[in-house]
Batch of 2 targets.
Target 1
Amino acid sequence: EAQVTQNPRYLITVTGKKLTVTCSQNMNHEYMSWYRQDPGLGLRQIYYSMNVEVTDKGDVPEGYKVSRKEKRNFPLILESPSPNQTSLYFCASSLDGGTYEQYFGPGTRLTVT
Amino acid sequence: GENVGLHLPTLSVQEGDNSIINCAYSNSASDYFIWYKQESGKGPQFIIDIRSNMDKRQGQRVTVLLNKTVKHLSLQIAATQPGDSAVYFCAENFPGTYKYIFGTGTRLKVLA
C-alpha cells in the first residue's frame, strides 16, 4: 500500500530535550515536506526537500532541522524543543515539488512542557 | 480525534444540496492550486487541482473554479453527502519554487 508513515504519532516531552520525528514514504517520491498545523493558522511549511541531500526552508523553519540522506526518509529534528513548538506535525511527499499533489502522513501530535 | 481548528469558518449545508467553499490566495503569480480535505484525526487528502492556465476543472462530484483577476479559488461539491463533512484547505504553489502556502481552512458540516 502506497503511504507516508510518521513516528511517533504522539509525543510528550520537556523543554530542551532533543527529539526526532521520523517520516518515510514508499512511493519513490522525489519531494518531501514537513508542515505544522495550529488552530486558526492552517498548515505552515517548515522545510522541504526536492531530492536526496537537497533541502530548503519553508515559512517557519526556526527551531527545526531536517536531513534527506535517503530518498524514502525525511526526519524532522528538534534540537532543543520549546513550548511554542507544541503542535500537530505532518509529513508529505509528492512525485515532484511543483506540479503534483502531496500525500500526507497521519500526523504527529507533539506537546512540549 | 485531532483538533484541526478551533476558530474555522463553518459552512453548514443540507444533505443533497450543493456546497461552495471559497479561498482567497495570496500571490498573483502562483500557478498551481490544490484543494485538500481533512477529516478528524487524519492528514489532508487530495481532492482536485488546477493550473493557472485553466479557469475550471471538474472531478467526480467536485469542480474547482479559478478567478485569477481577483485571486479567488472555489470548490463546488455537488449533492453533498455526510461523508463530505471535513475541513477543506486550498493551497497554492509559488512558480519556480517548491514552497506551498495553505489557506486556514473551512469546516463543512452536512446536516441530515
Target 2
Amino acid sequence: EIVLTQSPDTLSLSPGERATLSCRASQSVSSFYLAWYQQIPGQAPRLLIYGASNRATGIPDRFSGSASGTDFTLTISRLEPEDFAVYYCQQYDNSPTFGQGTKVEIK
Amino acid sequence: QVQLQESGPGLVKPSQTLSLTCTVSGGSISSGDYYWSWIRQPAGKGLEWIGRIYTSGSTNYNPSLKSRVTISMDTSKNQFSLRLSSVTAADTAVYYCARKFDHWGRGTLVTVSS
C-alpha cells in the first residue's frame, strides 16, 4: 500500500497569505494519478487538482499543484475566506489511498 | 451534470451486513471511461477508499476490506451498490459514492450499534 504523509497537520494563516501544503509518498507514484481535494466540514470532498498539476473544472487559478519525485505540493497563492478547510492528497492508481489531511485555519 | 445520491439504512447491528445504494442521474453508469467508487470517513477522521466498479463491471477493493466488501451495479436502475459484511463499530462512518473521484454524493451516515 502506498502511504501518503501530509505536512503540516495544521497551517495557521491569514486571508491573503500564501499556503503551501506538502504530500510525500512512501514509494513512487505516477504524477498522472495524484490528486488534491478540499473538504469543508459537513460537505463531501471537492476535487481541486488531478494529475498532480491540472485544475479541475471550475477551480480558481489561485490553486496550483506541482510534483518532484515522491513529493507533491498544493499551493494556494492568496487565501480567500472560503479556502479555510481541510485538504487531502490522494493517489488513485491501483489501490487508491489518501493522506491524513492538512487543516488550513484562520490565524 | 452528473449527480450521485447515497441511500440505505442509517443504523446497522454489529455482525450484520451494511447495504448502500448510489443512484446516479445525469449520466449512464454503463458508458464512458469511468469507474464508480465508495469511500468512507469516520467522524473527525480522514478518508478511506473502499472499492470501485468499472463500467465493464470489473471491480477492485481496498485490500484491508476486501474479504468483506462487494460492489455491484444495476444498469437498469442506473445504480451501484455496496455491501459490507460482518460490521463492527469501527465501520461507523459517513459513506460517499463517487464517479472517478470528480463527482461525489453528499454522503450518508451509517452507525453500527445494537
